[in-house]
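ARCHIVE CARD
Drawer: 12
Card no.: 0347
Subject: one protein chain, sequence and derived structure
Cross-reference: see card 0346
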Amino acid sequence: MASTSDIRNGLCINFNHDFWQITEFLHVKPGKGNAFVRCKLKSLTTGKVLEHTFPSGATLDDVRVERRTYQFLYPDEFGFNFMNNETFEQVSIPEDMVDGKEFMKEGQEVEILFHAETEKPLMCELPAHIVLEVIDAEPGVRGNTATNATKNATVETGAIIQVPLFVDAGEKIKVDTRTKSYIERVKQ
């Protein structure tokens, strides 16, 4: 059991008969009344995001999870298949449990969260930043760079993201998989 003083980003709890991960939290001590903790929770089974307020001192049913590094092998009709590089154990995960699946390419390493007691996979996360090659980009218009103008670009995984006008096909860019946005151009 944990209390509200143990709340931190990434903590997994059992709440309303589901497993939730705390993504954001804020301890609030108003001038009048009791303190409370405002949290943003993400369901590990459905991906749904929920905001909830816990009173100060409330007990939480924390869940023990393990993060393990796996390598993406291939997609099939049942979902995505991954392999543990140390034990060569393979696991198949449904598409809806994978965050940022549009940026996944074969051989890429990901982290899979497992429920420690049942060994059931809960969620798959890509690294926060990955490098991808731009396959197709609309041509930029010369002189239209005074503002933060963007254009559509297709990366090697087939995902379409917004990039600045100076990015051309064949270049490598760094992408934030959480926000699905362009970060910077990578030098070859």
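Annotation on reverse: Residues 132 and 153 are 11 Å apart (CA to CA). Residues 129-186 form a domain with the OB fold (Dihydrolipoamide Acetyltransferase, E2P) fold (CATH 2.40.50.140).
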